[in-house]
Design a protein that fits this description.
Blueprint lengths: L23 H10 L5 H4 L3 H9 L7 H10 L5 H11 L3
Helix pairs in contact: 3-4
InterPro entries: Npl4 (IPR016563)
GO molecular function, one term: ubiquitin binding
Length: about 90
């Protein structure tokens, strides 16, 4: 018997290896769709975190974001503002 596990990550951000071109517009669309959620829930998506890690703006700072997601704690305001500003450059 297989037990289903329910975690805190979502899977709504496009998958990078599915011939999808990820842009800041993709990030903006994702944030717009999830704006009713706490910000930590908005970024609680593996593919979104991977996208942010590959961006030049955040790089290794994604580890701090992943820690927030893992512990379900608030994202520091500076990261929140940076991600929002990245999305608004589209």
């Amino acid at each position: 018997m297989v037990a289903l596990m329910q975690g805190s990550l979502s899977s709504t951000f496009p998958i990078e290896n599915q011939n999808n071109l990820m842009t800041m517009r993709t990030l903006k669309n994702h944030l717009d769709r999830t704006k009713s959620l706490p910000f930590v829930k908005c970024i609680a998506d593996f593919h979104l975190l991977l996208f942010l890690a590959m961006s030049n703006s955040l790089g290794s700072d994604v580890l701090a974001l992943a820690a927030c997601v893992s512990t379900e704690t608030a994202v520091p305001e500076g990261y929140h503002l940076l991600i929002e500003s990245m999305a608004n450059t589209s």
